[in-house]
Design a protein that fits this description.
By secondary structure, this protein is α/β, with parallel strands linked by helices. The chain contains 13 helices and 15 strands.
Amino acid sequence: MSENNRRSFLGSSATAAGVLILKPETVFGTQANSALEVGIIGCGGRGNFIGGFFVEYTGARISALADPFQDRMEAAREKLRASGARLFPGLNGYKELIASNVDAVAVMSPPYFHPEQVAAAVAAGKHVFLAKPVAVDVPGCRSILASGEKAKGKLSFVVDFQTRVQPVFKEAASRVHRGDIGTPVLGHVYYHAGRLRPKTEPGMSAAQARLSNWVFDKVLSGDIIVEQNIHVLDAGNWYLKSHPVKASGTGGRKARVDVGDCWDHFLVNFWYPNGVKVDFSSAQFTKGYNDLCIRIYGSGGTADTHYNGTVRITGDKPWDGVEKDDTFRQGAITNVRDFAASIRSGNYLNNAQDSVESNLTAILGRMAAYRESAVTWDEMMRANERLEANLKL
């Protein structure tokens, strides 16, 4: 197989359908009737998924693509019906994309690369739509926070967490915050999912295989607690209106040992302010069982909320909510629409602070589990541990 046919990242499909949108001349490009020009950094599954939503739901034009793998860019250009999109290959291709005539960048690359790519985009005056997690380590989180601060009031800076924009989850959070479950006492949060499919192909070099399988690589992904489980940890922080102050944990690599070096399960206890304790677990190998849950037990009731499942409150002030909610898709669509609308209106969005806190929550849990000992938030921040990929294609 030729180098151009090497595959990378996770596969996914999205349908594109263009609708032209009107906006002020000062917003998109130089013509008052021009579409939002979006560049996508990272043309794997998420890049295609989000790119399709930009085209279908905002009328944006995908005008530039960057990815280490040529065939991924070519496939994305076809899938997104972006025949005129310029392609920028290689690990440094994002620099040329950012320097091109795009209004916004969708950063969908492996998380290890996010801080550097986002900093470059903001420095160039580009609006940023960013996949979670924002970074894999504390220095990366500090960088993202600095970029978010620099963007405030000047650019839209949106991290794609879905629960916080879904109406049913917003209603659940509002009810928790107004006291419908009484005083929060205990949380039970988990992310149990099946295996992901490896993307290695015959003939790949070790570096290509590692990059192609970045979701199984501790450094490139941040491990499963950071890369995947962050969804439920983010919602837990949201419900409790805080981040944890301490964590202890364990975990390991037992059911999935044939690819990468990520753990396949974590067990972590988090301590939040006001004496609230949260019991967290995750797995990325389960067969026949998948569930993402954020459950908060209060003195007067329970908020029982499931990603793409039941969202309800039981107890003194019950609320039926919904039996099934399409959070994964609809939340992403809402984020894309809101991002584009904010650029059109000039009312720029910025959720960097909450996103970084959720990212650091996941890193705290990872550190505690790796050490199998208690670690405080302040200890984690002082340690400022940096992950190094040393990746050379």
